[in-house]
Specification:
The structure is a homotetramer of 330-residue chains. Chain A is an alpha+beta fold and 330 residues long. In chain A, 13% of the residues lie in helices and 32% in strands. Chain A has a nine-stranded mixed β-sheet. In chain A, strands 3-5-17-12-15-14 form a six-stranded mixed β-sheet, with no helix packed on it.
């Protein structure tokens, strides 16, 4: 993909790949899933190298149709954030790494296909189930917005937001747990990281046989932290290519873009998510790029970068990154 | 049970109860469980009012046998904290409350039957997966200790700790999730609250048909916070009586002792667990005891009590309580 | 004071003490102080062993006079939590420890002398300056309450709260900082710990010449966490005896009661305050009582106790304790 | 400065300005300061519009001279992070805003003039005073590095880091507190935000007569979070222009660059710093740009940006920002 990739000598293993293309439509998906886990029957079985296009729903499964809808009357926890999948990857076993290239995201469905909203006890600047208060909730509010690839989203007379799509929730199954698609963790899930966008690769540790890839919850764009708890949610056609890297054991999601490598941490409080991300980045620099760990620690103090995914989910998500030029030389 | 109980007029519903006693032995349990979820077949089906005695394993399923064992070589995440159950309670449905009276806990098994230990990346005064650091782990250490009901535990020549047993992990199934028995949450789980002891009642919101009660992880005693991450773990005979209260909807675990009512919160950071617990306690005081919410808030600022369960699990657990004498009058 | 004290062989240094008694009245105090710092002129100079009685104001300096007062119109940050002092202790130098025995607290002033209230952006179950939200503040509310030593406080027809007074804010000066009396830290300050009560001793590290003791903010009682941000505030006569222990260097406040020793931590988030308290307790057990640190860590996991002071101040305060019987034998 | 500025109609007040240039050399500074507070005599008095060039020390006051120095033996808390100032700004009073244009930062002093290091109990991936652990500290390590404007910093054979200087610590005095220069807060201080760089403006609320500007601790570059606790510290000539905006009351630091406005929050845990920053940004958008607060909240969920300053100081610092094009139209 790139001349210089974190995959390095692992790349040779990617050469002998299959190139079948699969579709997971609303119809072939049937029931969407609200947990990441090993219990459902896979919707599809693929080989390393295959590509898949999924018809994703928005995070509300299309139930919010007009600006006069009242979210708390319509939405029904835990039946939120519907996911496509699980997709079984042949030969994937615990101890391997799944490598997902994000190829393309296009909006689908009738206009106005974009949705954002305020609902009670959810969001970054309101009290929640955990950050409990006695104050009255904000009034609920729904925005239904026209989203196109070419023109982005018209927010108001003055404000147009470009189309910068990414996958909000993507990951593999835990080994024996089945966890809400609202939560991010070491298997991926609801990370809400804008770097999970076309052109980038994301890596996951395989925990269960077949890896069991889930994805959904695509955003037309999103600010750092996903402040109100809801991005510009929209249904899409999302296409990924999936590679299996045998015998590469990682402990959580990692992302690679043309110019950066990134480690992802999900935890509360937010400093713990950041610590996790940075520690894994140091581990990566040491294991694959020959750095002394303390030197990497001191170097990242000078040139590390942090991206806040969300600070609204059951765990908050942060990516810590370093430029590839510091790893490979210019 | 007590003259003055939070159950109040709900108590009449407890009168027409069954009194069958059931046993769940190691043999009838067969495979123990490592997640709280709706997916396994129940080990037992009971009626409201029945009692059950379980043969619980210790948190390490008896695998730590001597002080020269090395925990990190023997223990295998996520196969930790084995639970008895699930026990199906007839007629229990989402929206009901399960009420579990803890009747008796007795140690079982060969001496030294008590175990506590230090393992890497786990505990309250070490770096962990989340509170990541680059420092070297503490050396692992195992203590195997004689535990008896009468004499407690002899820690050293000078120190004897009384036997104050409680159930470390107990709860019901989430609706569609299946979550590690290491984690506490609104369904109960690994709360590590010493108030879950013989003589007290614990209430859980029913989320799935049959409630699906799990329990295990009994502690011979424990300090506030379970500082090193491990209490005095031991296998037991644990006996509980289970009541179903129809149409009483609660949002998380609550505990009642002879003199206190308590609400339980599990979250990170620890202030959020405390906020959750106190907010639910105010809700309880308002709904069942006629308090104005703001008056209850101001009153708890004068006489609320907080018990720290653990600050080492994936979520930390806190109980907030108020004396019943403030609710019922002396 | 007690047969078995943490002071142990340090106790001999307390024998050759002075016994002069001093008064700091409203009049001799003159201007009260709103920061703990080395910059003001001492109100009094004493010798080790002297006793002092202070006329303390309540936390609002008596400005809240009726239940129809509106706190946000009357109170003026940073001029809150008025402190008596500073009291200069002869010979005290950085590296010493100041030992303050709390002898007596009596309410003073006209009835209703007790005050508690709700003010905007302050408290444990509301959004604050830090835990910012967009929700509307709770309505302000003031309670003015009769407080007596004998009968405590009549909260309502049904509820009477006993008089359990303690010093909410007490400490010494930082070396060069001057920090709001609303904040607790390693020098003491606004810890809001009910264990700072008559019969107990509190220890502080001396940071500045003369130690510069401040105190104020006495509470007629308080719940764990000081939930609404305000306890039962009242003006008092507070009497303490002050000892200087030369060459005993501690890193933060410690408390001793008849049956427990306690270390105090103040930080955010709350788990950090708890970590600080427990680490210092282990340090104390190792240095003064001969424990191996890892053994102390594992022992506290079985029998440590945690008391939450407040979770509403700029830093939250926790005390971690162990029974003296585990240190000295029964 | 820019055609479109947050100062808008406030800009007219900047026209009638003085243009005197002042120098604060090591010699005229004399004693540097380790707290931000109102107690020292100002080193200089200036008029609104004046420029000042300061000879700043590095954060260690030049005491770390070679790579074999042992930081914990040389550095002496609280005498760290030396600040120039305080600079008295004529007519500045509580309720005004101080506006500081950063004009230029140049390295000064003998090579190797750059310093970074690891010291015990300090940093983002080690245990600290607050995030206490029992693990052994990392070994101390010092890097002394050549820093030039043209070539940046040569970290190793392969790695060169460009010179991207900014002011690590800058702010005004609190009203009556005097707080360690290691801490950031609503008055500014040790924010470690790379956006405080030449070409940008930073705004502070005036709390004390004359505002009392302090600055120091310039970094040759820094990664997000200042991971090891220490950036590339170096002594500089730093030049700023200071404006006073009368009767503009803000509650914490704000920054303006050519294309963004940013609000700064400092708190623990890190989510609270982020909440503070975003709430103030919404307040700014509402007050000065006519946004409805809930609309601003929802819009920032789509296009807000977050920059992590440090997650190692006594409070962590975050800046939340929005593009000016969303405020002014393109």
């Amino acid at each position: 993909m790139w001349k210089k990739s974190a995959l390095k000598d692992k790349i040779v293993k990617l050469e002998d790949i299959s190139h079948t293309h699969h579709y997971v439509t609303e119809k072939t998906q049937g029931k969407y899933h609200y947990v990441y886990g090993p219990y459902p029957t896979p919707v599809l079985s693929i080989k390393s190298g295959d590509t898949v296009t999924c018809e994703t729903h928005d995070a509300f499964e299309g139930q919010i149709k007009t600006e006069s809808d009242v979210p708390s009357e319509i939405l029904n926890f835990p039946y939120l954030n519907p996911q496509n999948g699980p997709i079984f990857v042949e030969s994937a076993e615990k101890g391997d790494t799944l490598c997902v290239e994000i190829l393309k995201i296009s909006p689908r469905g009738e206009q106005p296909r974009g949705t954002t909203l305020i609902m009670p006890q959810f969001g970054g600047l309101v009290s929640t189930k955990e950050t409990a208060s006695l104050q009255k909730d904000l009034p609920e509010r729904v925005r239904k917005l026209i989203v196109t690839e070419e023109k982005g989203t018209i927010w108001s007379d003055k404000i147009t937001i470009p189309y910068e799509p990414f996958i909000g929730s993507i990951g593999v199954s835990p080994e024996i747990e089945a966890v809400s698609a609202l939560q991010p963790d070491y298997w991926g899930g609801n990370m809400d990281l804008p770097d999970v966008r076309p052109g980038n690769i994301i890596y996951f540790p395989v925990n269960a046989p077949g890896a069991l890839l889930y994805l959904g919850d695509c955003h037309a764009t999103q600010g750092d932290g996903e402040l109100s708890g809801v991005a510009l949610e929209h249904p899409t056609h999302t296409t990924v290519r999936v590679h299996l890297v045998k015998d590469w054991k990682i402990s959580g999601p990692r992302i690679e873009s043309e110019n950066f490598i990134m480690s992802v941490g999900s935890a509360r409080p937010l400093e713990d998510a950041t610590r996790m991300a940075y520690r894994d980045l140091i581990e990566w620099m040491a294991t694959d790029f020959g750095f002394d760990r303390i030197d990497a620690y001191m170097l990242l103090s000078q040139c590390g970068r942090v991206r806040l995914g969300n600070m609204v989910d059951p765990k908050y998500t942060v990516a810590a990154s370093i430029k590839k030029s510091y790893l490979f030389g210019e």
